[in-house]
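Tutorial, part two.
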Amino acid sequence: MRQAKNANQLHVCVAASLALGLLASSSTARADQMMASKPITIRFGVEADFASSNRVDQIHSDLELLYNSAGTFGAGIDFNAGPLGSFATNHYYVNASRRFTPATIPAQFAFWGASNGQTVWTLSQASSLPNALWLGVAGENIPAAGTAEMVDWSPGQNNGTAAAKWLELSLVGVRGPAGANVSLYQILANNQPSVYWATSDGIASNDAFYVQSGAHLHAWWVFTQPGTYEIDVQLRTNTNLNWLAGDANRDGFVDRLDLNALAQNFGTRNDWFAGDFTGDGLVDLQDFFALGANWNPANGSLAAAWADARASVPEPATIASLGTMALVALRRRSGATTCTQVVERSTETVRPGPSTPTTT
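Running the prediction step on this input gives:
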């Protein structure tokens, strides 16, 4: 997913400016803590199959979202009996009965990214059809330990407006047929769509759907081309963990081992244990600054430790330049570094999705 150059410059400018004061102070205890998962890949076959994989078709099934506890997540296929199925060996199947070819697509459904007269494939929100998959999204299998750690929060967007123990299902990448689009939405009481995902206008942070712990929801899924789709998602929730920011390996110290984890995963979508200390699902400068706020001087200079960590990890020039900017911010806490100086040193970055399907 590509981040616009200007937006990235603004992010770097703000983050570096905050760092000037943040890194000189101690961390502040938090009453709660957002946690994010590693990317998880959900697989769909639209009149097509994955090799060595089982079809999930013509049943009522749920995409089960899990917060297991202690910062770990999972997702699986609910067959309504027995253990959850893995996306490594199963895929949701959208069969020919779900073809729909509208002569004219109403304006409120332009987000499908399809043209008038184009065939699309839909999974229905409303009811279970005897010859098709009826797919829900659920948080009904979250273990008691996970539920006990979850804290009420209000995402403030899409269907997550009231405070509750929400799990966020964010779209972060799609690999599918050429020219294909995917959308996820619900039809509400006013017969208008409430859109949660729509790749026709790109992928953004508000491409998110929410389900409460213990709840079960249905929505419309629309695919605009036949073929196989690998849909990358991340889960997030609010917790009462209150862990020490920067302590990736949870040994009670913020040291070079934690900094190495951050360096190895810098610029990726990832979880706490890989360096996402802010719970936004990205390992980036904000996490570097969070770690820096708790760095123990007994470990030596943070600037020198970061240089060592970077040297051990092959990384694109853009990421290396971001690391350099972070060090500039560290060294100029007096305020001599201006936003203009920082922005001039920034470049466009690409945040890659996972290279292989991931299940947890």
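Residues 1-29, 317-321, 323-360 have pLDDT under 50 and may be disordered. In part three we will examine how such features are distributed along the chain.
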